[in-house]
Each structure stands twice: as structure tokens, then as C-alpha cells.
Amino acid sequence: MTPLAVDVLVIGLGPAGGAAAAAAAKRGLRVAAIEKRKAVGVPVQCAEFIPLPLARHAQAQGVPAQRITGMRSVLPSGAASATPFQGLMVDRAAFDLALARQAAEAGAMLHVDTRLEALRAGDSTAVVRGADGAFAIRYRIVIAADGPHSTAARLLGLPALGIVNTRQYTVRLLHPGAATDIWLSDRYPGGYAWLFPKGEHANLGVGMDPGCASDMKTPLDALHGRLAREGRLGREILARTGGAIPVGGLRERLAVRNVVFAGDAAGLTHPITGAGIAAAVISGERAGEAAYALLGTGNPKALDEYDEDMRDQFEETLARGLARRRELERAWRERGAGTDAVQRRGWIAFEEYYRGTVPA
Ligand SMILES: Cc1cc2nc3c(=O)[nH]c(=O)nc-3n(C[C@H](O)[C@H](O)[C@H](O)COP(=O)(O)OP(=O)(O)OC[C@H]3O[C@@H](n4cnc5c(N)ncnc54)[C@H](O)[C@@H]3O)c2cc1C
Questions:
Q1: Is the pLDDT of residue 164 over 80?
Q2: For the segment 141-161, what is each residue's pLDDT rounded down to a tens digit?
Q3: Is the pTM of this model over 0.70?
Q4: Other CB atoms within 10 A of residue 134 CB
Q5: Which CATH architecture has domain 4-317?
Q6: Which of 356 and 155 is assigned the larger pLDDT?
Q7: Which of 13, 42, 46, 129 for a ligand 1 pocket mutation test, highest count of atoms within 8 Å of Cβ?
Q8: pLDDT given at position 8
Q9: Domain parsing of the chain, residue ranges
Q10: Which residues form ligand 1's pocket by a CB distance below 6 Å?
């Protein structure tokens, strides 16, 4: 059978893949995107917070849920600090779907329930498996937007990204509000606990380093139980989710031959907060533009420029996050993470986090 031939093959239809496929297709490239899930965006594996500048990507019906204006960071001693924190809670499934729809409207061919199985660099062919079996897709560029456990990276022999694991419940929020709660404590080694209000519900979760601790259920149940006893949350768990978050910073190279990495697959997630939706959309869009610059306008340096641009935009923030993460890791190992001073230096809401230069 003659393989499908495209200019750009996008792997994954999360925010990075949707944005990449839309950007490339809008510029007239022939684009195919594959997504291993049966439906884009489902199941949701997210606390559903986006920073305010990303709100322009959250206008579609059903996407915006509520404004967030503040953050309450609770230290190990119980001291709480309130800071401004501007953003939006979204319906993440609808958010991802809206991006994928933009790509489809621009002419991209979307294949759900279809996973990447092999990449043959020699003849730029991917073998993918859909519901009806395996088929080949010839590409000129691959945009690997396939998340924290990138198959494309593995097939290219690139190292796996360091990750934090998460566990999250959706529960009823008995007193809706516009501030997120963050708990910093040695109870959550390698991470923190969060509550993001979403109307009459809340996403309550914990993130932890799998190297430090494997049981996330006990601390999450304890936090949920306490907040239920305090009358803040309902006892019933309405939904459960979780997933991996890359926390090791950027890959050494974001373009390997004609394969370009975007979003979590590129390591663009914040090493401390785990936030990655904004970076996924920005990098995906930019990767789609870079594909056009190479294939449509003949700029031979387009993929290197993409790599450089991502570093210019994100490296400083990621480097500070990584440096703070290493300090926290040391403290967790040496059992010093239970002090307010250590946690203040390791969390974005405190001025200590931004003090001092960060080693290159
Ligand atoms: C519990 C949790 C809460 C989070 N909360 C927030 C938050 O509130 N705000 C925030 O900014 N970030 C949050 N994040 C991080 C955020 O979800 C990610 O940074 C974001 O989803 C990255 O987008 P992406 O498109 O790069 O990857 P993903 O969203 O992971 O998308 C990758 C896609 O590729 C598909 N895929 C994987 N392998 C293959 C394959 N072989 N073939 C085909 N398809 C494949 C996957 O099914 C998936 O749909 C959270 C993460 C977790 C786990």
C-alpha cells in the first residue's frame, strides 16, 4: 500500500500537538496528526489552570471555567502567605479539543486511536497503528508533541526525562473562591499539594518525586479528609486522575535531524510548579511555524532557530526552577525539607525563590 505522504507529521494532540498542527496547516503545509487516545483531551490529566496571557487560546465555548486571582501558600509551620496570582481555570478536555478543531479546520488530517510505533529515519517514514492495523506515513518533518514519556524520543534513542508523579481528585468545593491553595511540606517529597477551585468543584492533588516516595494516596487522602472535616470540601471523590510531569528541564537538543520536540516532550514544563500548558502551546505553535520556514520558505536554519528561540524564551525560568529543585532534593534527602526557610526558597510565591543568580 502506498504510504500517506505529508509535509508534517505531528505526534500527539495535547496542547503542543494541536497548536503545532494548526500553525503548520494554516500556512498551507500538508499535515497529519496522530493521537493514541480514542478522543482528544480525554481523560483529563490536569489541574486545569492556565496563566492569563494564554486566555486568548481559551475562548471557545465550554473552555473558560473561572478566573483565579490569588494564591495562598501554606508553609510547614502552618504559616500562610497570600499573593496575587492571575489566571484562568479551563475545561482542559475542551481546551485541547478546541486546538485540535482549529487544526482540522485549517486542513490537518487528524487520526485518533492511532499511535506511533516506529520511526525509520532513513526514508523519513513513521509506522503508526490505528484501529484497523498498522500503516506508514512518509513525512518531511515530525513534530514530537507526545508528552512526558515521548515515544519519538525513545525511538530516536534519546534519554527519558526526569519526572514527578501526581495523583488528583475532583471534589465538591463547598465555598467557591478565586484563590488556589498550595501546601509545601515534607509530606509531599519532591513536590507539593494543590487545590484549584473550579466553580463548585475543585481539583485537589499532590505531586511527588517517585525516587523519594511512591505512596501518594495516603497524603492525598489525609489532606482531603482534613479539608472535608473543616467544611471546605465534599467527601465524595467525583473523579480521579494523575500522570507524569517532566521536571528535568529542556532536552539537550530540541531538533534532532528532522524531528522537532515541543511541549512536555521537549522538557518545557516548569521544574517546580509542573505548569506546562502555556509552554506547550507556545512551543507547538512555534514548531509549526518553523516547519513552514524550512519547507515553505526554504530557510535551512529554521529548526535550529526554533531550538534557539525556545531557549531564549524559557531557559532562564527553567534554569532557576531546576536550581531550586536541586536544593529541595538535597533537603528532602537530608530530611531538612520540613522548615519554612527551605520551602520559601523553593516556591515561586516567595521572594527568596528569585534571589541570587542561577548557575548556567
Ligand atoms: C495531574 C496534572 C496536573 C497538571 N496541572 C497543570 C496545570 O494546572 N497547569 C499547567 O500549565 N500544567 C499542568 N500540568 C502539566 C500539563 O498538563 C502539561 O504540561 C501539558 O499537558 C503538556 O502538553 P503536551 O501537549 O506537551 O503534552 P500532553 O498533554 O501530554 O499531550 C501528549 C499527547 O500525546 C499523546 N501520545 C503519547 N504517546 C503517543 C504515541 N506514541 N502516539 C500517538 N500519540 C501519543 C498522548 O495521548 C497525549 O494526548 C499538569 C500535569 C498533570 C499530570
A1: yes
A2: 999 999 999 999 999 999 999
A3: yes
A4: 12
A5: 3-Layer(bba) Sandwich (3.50)
A6: 155
A7: 46
A8: 98
A9: 4-317
A10: 11-17, 34-37, 45-50, 115-116, 145-147, 151, 166, 168, 205, 241-243, 245, 263-265, 269, 274-278, 280
pLDDT at residue 334 in the model: 86
| Pocket mutation for ligand 1, best pick of 89, 245, 318 (most atoms within 8 Å of C-beta) | 245
Residue 125 CB burial class (10 angstroms; 0-12, 13-18, ≥19): middle
Cα–Cα distances in angstroms (integers) from residue 121 to residues 8, 140, 194, 263, in the given order: 14, 10, 42, 22
- For 290-328, what is each residue's pLDDT tens digit? 999 999 999 999 999 999 999 999 999 999 999 999 999
| 1: confidence class by pLDDT, cuts 50, 70, 90 | low
Q: Answer with the residue of higher pLDDT: 360 or 305.
A: 305
Is residue 354 within 8 A of residue 320, CB to CB? The reply is yes
Average pLDDT over residues 47-68: 96
Closest ligand 1 atom number to CA of residue 48? 8
Mean of the per-residue pLDDT values of the chain: 96
